[in-house]
Design a protein that fits this description.
alpha/beta; TIM Barrel; four-stranded antiparallel β-sheet; 11 helices; 20% strand; binds flavin mononucleotide
Length: 305
Amino acid sequence: MERKITPVVISTALGLGGRGIFPYTLWPDYRKLLKAVRETQTAVLTKSSTRFKRMGNFIPWNPLTWKYIQRLPGLGMLNAYGLTNPGAAKAAAEIRLAVEDGFHVIPNFYPEFAKGTDQAIRETLEALEIFQFLLGRRFWAVELNYSCPNSAEEIRENVEQGLKCSREVRERYPNLFIIAKISICHPYEFAQELEGLGVNAVHAINTIPYEIIYCPLSHPRSPLWRAGGGGVSGGPAFAAAYYYNQGLRRKVKLFLIMGCGVTSRDDVKKYFDIGADAVSFCTLALRDPREAAEIVRMEFSTRNR
Ligand SMILES: Cc1cc2nc3c(=O)[nH]c(=O)nc-3n(C[C@H](O)[C@H](O)[C@H](O)COP(=O)(O)O)c2cc1C
């Protein structure tokens, strides 16, 4: 398995283990995407796990919760998924299966700062031990998710916690490639401080809070307002994400994975043109896996020309 971030990476859309989400796996175009990702050794960032099982808002087998993931016009999505997952041990076991199956997978972990900073960091370190134990040498990188779009205020407030957590992970794992996933609500100083303490890469950005994308005059409130508003991804998020990333590139030198809003090859090129070291996408893989597969294959042939 390659120990590097490929120029194009798939974020979240291949699930907790990184080899596909059921029932998407029943869809031939999505299966073709999985094949392309495996054959090209494209890096896959998983869906977030937490240390212990967590019941989020969206439960795949409960139709009453399906409203927490909605389609938006322009190849967009709105989600208040809420991090449903079976915990780090099961996630690690799934990742191991994916890696053994030939996928190039990097785990994404969500430190639950709502439990208190010290507890969240303790749980993060425990989860990393589990990944290390189950993946061995194939555990060379981790993505720490500091950017779940609960509310803009909550995200802004987690800066100190994110820095402390990254520092402790850096100390405990000096050779681990750490990716910090940040939000449009984070000030650029957050990325600069992460760079200063030795984080290897920043992934900008996660889904964008609904009220940032949609003007309150034309869209008075999010259809998911009861669940905090939800995060917008895909086409409707591109302009704001592009603007944020353009500014961020001027502030940091570290490896920058730019993403959010990619719906075409043209968008990938736009991010490379403003200095992305790698470009990520998620929603495109779920809404138009055929285009996603073409991007993956095209990027691979450019890389190997
Ligand atoms: C349904 C759904 C679930 C997501 N779950 C996670 C997650 O568990 N962890 C995470 O870091 N990002 C998660 N994301 C965010 C994506 O990885 C990505 O950063 C975001 O959607 C922006 O990129 P895009 O416009 O290409 O989708 C999720 C996005 C969607 C649409």
